[in-house]
Design a protein that fits this description.
With 470 residues, this protein is of the alpha/beta class. The chain contains 18 helices and ten strands. β7, α5 and β8 form a beta-alpha-beta unit.
């Protein structure tokens, strides 16, 4: 049977700032081989491995992966085109796992995004192979460094192990932190996996891993890459059986993961709620009916919307969760070009705007001399628009978190743009309070003001999400 190409890299050139990391590089990974990337620190091993997964912008060239349905599929090129990866296994230099996940949850997430059929018995079998079964219900933060690394390596190998179709596995320094027995298990699994037709790329300094490779790519600081081959014996090591391939659930898995993390540790909700409630209580304590009559209804409208606005512009806890052990970079590689879009929605405050606006109304409306009770029936409209402001704010925070400090300090000022839709919402609420709700679409009508606020927020969101991918 003809050996298929799993990854095809042509004319690859990558810069980090002004520094050329990889130049005019061509490479193919085939079924049934282990390729090790070898060289001194900073020579480009990790950059090449991560670029193979479409994780870096490339200056020149293209990267293709074999897809189960469409043959060779473009993953990324220098024209800015990017497509999601086929199912694959990935272990980064850092573990790429949130400490709030349990060991069993991590394995289920990895298998779900890889399209592998599994049940609890199969998950326990995999964990048992790597000495993790007795810790399956523990959070990753409770594991030792060695056990956490075992879990990370297993997470990279499992998508290929359970797949009946050929898969790519990318491992960056997988033996770091492993004890002797775990490293021997890793070596045996690598040779057994390629006997099933999978292709594996390993960036490593470990001589034991280099010795079991079919091909070795040796990098030098002079940007030269030398390729050598070495014969390897067939493996007779027994590994768990594969299962059926099932539909892949990537984006929904990210949403479920984020929900579980927040449910287990609701730091995002707390961080947003506390300053919003403080603002509401201060407004109630310091602003009287007489003061509102002096400064006007627009000031009162601003106080009604302020707690909700504060809650949506606070940086999402998702950013800190992504930063933990490069968890966000693992998800970015798995999800692909939809990662930033999905994260901007997940990281936004979707629970708090409605209750905060209504709570502010019921607490502060006593300070208004006379107000039409029908206003409360239309508060859901500014609540709805506030969701768009929340998504825009989340996307800006995520954009800032991806930049270096010099760029982040400038881009963070873009948050001031969101004051504009806030002002439009204040004006619309003032019109509803003074004149009641109307459905005209002129400049002075509340519907137009809310439409403008929503449009501005959506434009900010689109720019923040899609411009970095361009």
């Amino acid at each position: 049977m003809e050996v298929q190409t799993l990854i095809q890299i042509s004319g690859l050139e990558i810069h980090r700032g002004n520094r050329l990391i990889i130049s005019d590089f061509d490479f193919e990974l085939s079924e049934g081989e282990v390729v090790t990337l070898v060289g001194p620190n900073g020579c480009g091993k990790t950059t090449l491995l991560e670029s193979s997964a479409g994780m870096h912008t490339i200056s020149s060239g293209s990267i293709y992966w074999r897809d189960d349905l469409s043959g060779m599929k473009l993953v990324r090129d220098s024209d800015g085109r990017r497509n999601p990866l086929p199912p694959m296994g990935l272990t980064l230099q850092k573990n790429g796992i949130s400490g709030e996940e349990t060991v069993q949850e991590r394995m289920k997430t990895v298998l779900t995004v890889s399209g592998c059929d599994f049940d609890d018995i199969k998950v326990q079998e995999l964990l048992d192979c790597w000495g993790l079964k007795h810790r399956s219900s523990d959070r990753v933060s409770q594991l030792s460094g060695g056990l956490a690394r075992r879990l990370s390596v297993l997470s990279g190998l499992a998508p290929a192990l359970l797949s009946k179709k050929s898969r790519v596995v990318l491992l960056d320094e997988p033996s770091e932190g492993l004890d002797k027995s775990a490293k021997l298990l890793l070596i045996n699994w690598l040779r057994a996996l390629i006997s099933r037709g999978h292709g594996i790329i390993v960036a490593t300094h470990d001589s034991d891993l280099i010795s079991i490779a079919d091909r070795i790519l040796k990098f030098s600081n002079g940007k030269e890459v030398n390729l050598s081959s070495q014969p390897q014996p067939e493996s007779n090591f027994i590994i768990p059986n594969s299962t059926n391939n099932v539909p892949i659930k990537k984006v929904s898995s990210l949403f479920n993961w984020a929900y579980r993390m927040e449910k287990r540790n609701p730091i995002d909700t707390i961080n947003r709620l506390i300053p919003a409630i403080l603002a509401l209580l201060l407004s109630h304590a310091l602003v009287s009916e007489d003061e509102i009559s002096i400064v006007g209804t627009d000031f009162f409208s601003a106080l009604i919307l302020l707690p909700s606005f504060i809650s949506v512009v606070i940086p999402p806890a998702l950013i800190s969760r992504y930063a933990e052990e490069n968890c966000g970079r693992w998800w970015s590689a798995v999800i692909g070009p939809k990662f930033r879009l999905s994260s901007s929605i997940i990281g936004s405050s979707i629970l708090l705007p409605i209750p905060l606006i209504y709570l502010s109304w019921f607490i502060l409306s006593d300070n208004l001399a006379s107000v039409d009770d029908s206003v409360v029936y239309w508060l859901w409209l500014p609540c709805l628009v506030m969701y768009f402001v929340a998504i825009a704010a989340s996307s800006l925070h995520l954009l800032v978190s991806d930049l270096r400090r010099s760029g982040a300090s400038v881009v963070s000022l873009l948050l001031l743009v969101l004051v504009w839709p806030f002002i439009e919402l204040v004006d619309s609420l003032e019109m509803i309070i003074l004149n009641g709700m109307s459905w005209g679409f002129s400049l002075e009508e509340p519907i137009f003001m809310m439409f403008l606020a929503g449009t501005i927020s959506l434009l900010v969101w689109i720019v923040s999400v899609y411009l970095p991918e361009a």
